[in-house]
Amino acid sequence: LYHNYHYCKWQYSITATCNNDNYDIDFTPATLKINKRNIKISTTQSGVYGNLHTLDNDDYELIEGEIVNDDNLNLSLSTNAQIDDPVGTNYEINLLDCNYNYNVRISSDSAYSIAPRQITITKNQTIQYGDEIVLDDGYTLVRGEVIDGDNLGVSFSIDEITNPTAGVSYPISLNNYTNRNYNITFNDGYLTIEARKITISTTQYGYY
């Protein structure tokens, strides 16, 4: 009986036969117990803020023990990271299930991390000549996705304009953003000054 060819259960019956007629053997029934094989694994995985966090059950490193017979551990891993959890590296990885023949432990340094969501934005704004130059916090999303309800906390800046001129566009820069669940790339944007629309009326007189 070889334990590595058998499913690990608590015990197997042991029987005996004797081919030597010179002996009359009284055999007391016995059992063979096969214990689970102890192993330890380490896994470090990551996801993106705002996505559903699913783990790769085959992404691990064996750091203690041995897997025999080309066994599949059939791991089922989970994390306590939720879809709306912030960027960070301190989320747990837990073992839900595995091959019954193994006693699998996960190393304490195993962890799940959430990376910032990558997006690209730009900003273009138009004012009329003579208006105060004040940038609002509006923007246009060029690439990626902003999760519903999130505020990027963006602020923009523009170099001082000493002689604003209608028909001219002035570069806008991304000054800052406060929501660190995002990694924001900014495409060039511009403030455009339009000619001010006015209506005039005039009445003039002459003499014959």
| Beta-strand content | 35-45%
Major beta sheet summary: 4 strands, mixed
Low-confidence stretches: 1-6
Number of helices: 0
Looking at the structure, what is the overall shape?
rod-shaped
Distance between the ends: 132 Å
Rg over CA atoms? 36 Å
* Number of extended strands: 17
Q: How would you classify the helix and strand content by structural class? A: mainly beta
Major sheet strand order? 12-17-15-14
Helix content: under 10%
Report on the architecture of this protein.
- The strands form 6 sheets. Strands 12-17-15-14 form a 4-stranded mixed β-sheet, with no helix packed on it.
- The model is unreliable at 1-6 (pLDDT under 50).
- Helix content is 0%, strand content 39%.
- It is mainly beta and 208 residues long.
